[in-house]
Design brief:
Number of domains: 2
Number of helices: 11
Distance between the termini: 55 Å
Oligomer: single chain
Amino acid sequence: MDFSLESINGLVSSLPGGDVLWMALMFIVVLSILVFFHELGHYLAARSVGVRVTTFSIGFGKELFGWNDKHGTRWKFSLVPLGGYVQMFGDTETKDLTEAEKSEAFLEKGVWQRIWVVFAGPLANFVLAIVFLFGLMLSGEEVLKPHVGTVTEGSAAEAGGIQEGDLFLVMDGNPVFKWDDVVKNIAASQGKPMTLVMERDAQALTLLVAPKVEKRNNLMGEEVVIPFLGVSPSGERTVVEHSVGDALVLGFTRTYDITARILEGIGKIITGSVSAKHVGGPVMIAEVAGQAGSQGWYSLVMFMVVISINLGLINLFPIPVLDGGHLLFYFIEALRGKPLGEKAQEYGYRVGFGLIMMLMLLAISNDILRVVNKFTDDKEQVTLEAPVQEKE
């Protein structure tokens, strides 16, 4: 029996409402794994400094099933799979506790120990991304072959003699192994003529092509001026092998690159240079998770890498309610030598809660608009494809 994701997707999708069921399934799987490791970071850090953990929950609401371990922690899965939490002993009030109980209470620990416990959650998401990437690179990196699928009519590629089916071998003296190399070399050309070595019909030929500098919209909707060659990949994939050392380095560098791109995107949304319509909620995540899952384990794990980094970053934002907000309060406490007053913390949490609600409303409203637009587009497509009946 074939247990590949592609075959499972085919089986589920064949059921009534199967596409929606598949997206929901992939969403729950992805989110549960990432939330588990995030909360595991908090849990292990808490245990390392002697804090008793009373509850470890995947999901919110009514408990579906669970068990107690020998340390008194209740591990459980709950009804609503939209997150999770770790409940620590003594994280709200400790004045009525005995001395023995205080030794296990979160709030009785030193400020730097509490900082470690809170920071460990987001840290776990970055570590998970590095481990996943290391595993993917070590098992063989799946990349697009530098194989030309289409050539845009009237483009620099057509003028330079590039044809559909050509394979990029060398660009300006740089060996080409994957389509990403093609993209990077075109960008580096700044529109200057490039010497290309292509393979066509098992023969190597050299072409001189000058990319056209044009205004285009990038993935974030920004208008940018870039060199444009006018070729697109065939979609054929190949596997690039990496040594253990290279795979480990790539695990760190790719995590850094993805983190930098996410921060850049968030910065542009905050400054208004990019539309906030790119902010997605649960529906968008489920849709992309479903698409990634239908393409196999490699694509799904790569998607989990990106979402794990997002989860780690967002939780580090200095917004009360998030881990970053708690860290902000604890760093202030470390500098002042005493905690912030209760009123200041209460106002902070109110502001933080308001910001999170606004972000959630934005993400959900964007999800709704995407669904409506997709339904409208599908309806228009059906109308266009419907046969026109002639009057008799």
